[in-house]
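[Discussion] Sanity-checking designs against the backbone

I'm trying to build intuition for which residues belong where. Below is a C-alpha cell string of 267 positions. I'd appreciate it if someone posts a full sequence so I can compare it with mine line by line.
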C-alpha cells in the first residue's frame, strides 16, 4: 500500500505520520486489525496528557531503567504495534540493558511472528525469542494465545517490559512473581493498574527516553537500587491521573481550544 504524503505544516503531522506507519505495517502483516483500534484508544489518552512526557512518566521511566539494569534476566516483550513504532529503539534498549527480546502476541500466527522477527532483525536484533515452536512453554493462568512463551525468555525472566499489553497477562506475570513494567497511555487500564511500574506515556516517546536514562544509569547500580526503593507505583499512577485532571481544568478555565494552541506555542 502506498502511504500518503503528510504536509509538514499540518497541525497534527506527527500523529498522522505515526498512523501512516501503523497502516503500512498493517498491510505487511505486522500490525493486527485490533492493533489499529488499540492505537486509537491510545491517541485519545495522548490528547488528554498533552502529547508530552509528564513528570510522573519520567519518574516511572527512571524506575523502569533501574529495574531493567539490575535484573538477572530481563526480557522486552514485543507485539505488532511496538515493532511497527519503535523497532530500532527496542533493539537499542535491549543492548543497553542486556535484555532479551521476545515476540508475544494476542493474535498469533506464524506469518505475523515471522514478520515481526524480520522487522526486529532489520533493526539490528541478533536474537528474537518466542517465534514458532520456540514459544513452547505455557503460562497456565492465561486463556489467550499470550500464554505461549519462550522457556528461555519470559518464562524465566525476573523483569519483563510489556509495552502495549493486555491486563490479563500483566496480572498473570505479576502473580508469577515477576517485576512487570508497562507502557500504557491509559492510566485506568488493567495493565496500568496491575503492573509493578507503570509508564503513562506514548511508546514513541517513552522507549527512546528509557534508552537515554538507561545509558546514564548503567554505571551506577547503587543509584538504581535507591531509585527503586523510593518509587511508589500506586502513588505515581494517582499523580498521573491528577496531572491530567489539572491540565483539563486549566484548559477549561482558560478557554478550551485557544488555550490548547497557547500551550503548544509554550513548548
Ligand atoms: P486492559 O486489558 O489493560 O484493560 P485494554 O483493553 O485497553 O487494556 P488493549 O485493547 O490491548 O487493552 O489496548 C491497548 C492499550 O494500549 C490501551 O490502553 C491504549 O491506551 C494503549 N496504547 C495504544 N497505543 C499506545 C501507544 N502508542 N503508546 C502507549 N500506549 C498505547
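Best answer:
Here's mine. Compare freely.
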Amino acid at each position: 500500500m502506498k502511504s500518503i504524503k503528510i504536509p509538514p505544516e499540518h497541525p497534527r503531522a506527527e500523529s498522522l505520520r505515526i498512523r501512516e506507519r501503523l497502516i503500512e505495517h498493517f498491510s505487511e502483516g505486522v500490525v493486527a486489525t485490533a492493533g489499529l483500534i488499540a492505537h486509537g484508544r491510545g491517541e485519545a489518552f495522548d490528547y488528554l496528557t498533552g502529547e508530552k512526557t509528564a513528570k510522573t512518566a519520567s519518574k516511572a521511566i527512571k524506575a523502569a531503567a533501574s529495574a531493567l539494569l539490575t535484573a538477572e534476566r530481563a526480557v522486552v516483550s514485543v507485539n505488532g504495534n511496538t515493532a511497527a513504532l519503535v523497532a530500532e529503539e527496542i533493539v537499542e534498549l535491549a543492548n543497553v540493558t542486556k535484555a532479551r527480546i521476545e515476540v508475544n502476541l494476542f493474535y498469533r500466527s506464524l506469518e505475523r511472528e515471522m514478520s515481526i522477527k524480520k522487522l526486529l532483525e532489520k533493526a539490528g536484533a541478533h536474537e528474537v525469542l518466542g517465534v514458532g515452536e520456540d514459544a513452547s512453554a505455557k503460562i497456565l493462568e492465561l486463556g489467550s494465545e499470550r500464554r505461549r512463551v519462550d522457556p528461555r525468555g519470559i518464562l524465566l525472566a525476573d523483569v519483563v517490559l510489556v509495552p502495549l499489553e493486555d491486563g490479563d497477562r500483566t496480572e498473570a506475570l505479576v502473580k508469577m512473581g515477576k517485576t512487570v513494567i508497562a507502557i500504557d497511555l491509559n492510566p485506568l487500564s488493567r495493565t496500568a493498574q496491575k503492573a509493578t511500574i507503570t509508564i503513562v506515556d506514548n511508546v514513541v516517546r517513552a522507549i527512546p527516553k528509557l534508552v537515554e536514562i538507561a545509558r546514564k544509569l548503567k554505571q551506577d547500580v547503587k543509584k538504581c537500587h535507591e531509585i527503586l526503593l523510593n518509587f511508589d507505583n500506586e502513588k505515581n499512577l494517582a499523580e498521573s491521573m491528577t496531572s491530567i485532571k489539572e491540565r483539563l481544568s486549566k484548559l477549561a478555565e482558560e478557554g478550551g481550544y485557544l488555550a490548547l494552541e497557547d500551550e503548544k506555542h509554550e513548548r
